Fold this protein.
Amino acid sequence: AEFCGKGNQPTRFEKEKLGIPFLTLATTKYILETGASDSLCEYSIDIYSSPDFEDQYESSTILVTTIVIGVVFLAMGTVFFMYDWFVQLRNKQLVGAAASASAMISSLFQAT
């Protein structure tokens, strides 16, 4: 943690700012009802990200994981299409062999 002081907020992380007031609504209401307004504290804490915090979560793990998953899916797709191609090739050979066997049997046993 680093105390930046008043007005020294890092503008790069302005979107990630988290503001925390010291007093809740119930505490403020109690102080105003009891008349103890001199003890009213109007401070708040603004918490920002820092480059060190950001560096903890920036790594190449996501990129490596994405590439590995993509390669696995590509390999699975390739294996599937190769299998499909081999099955179609085998079916063509089987249909060709069946057609030639049918033609041979038809020529031997002609219907009259």
About this structure: The first strand starts at residue 18 and ends at 21. DSSP finds three helices and two strands in the chain.
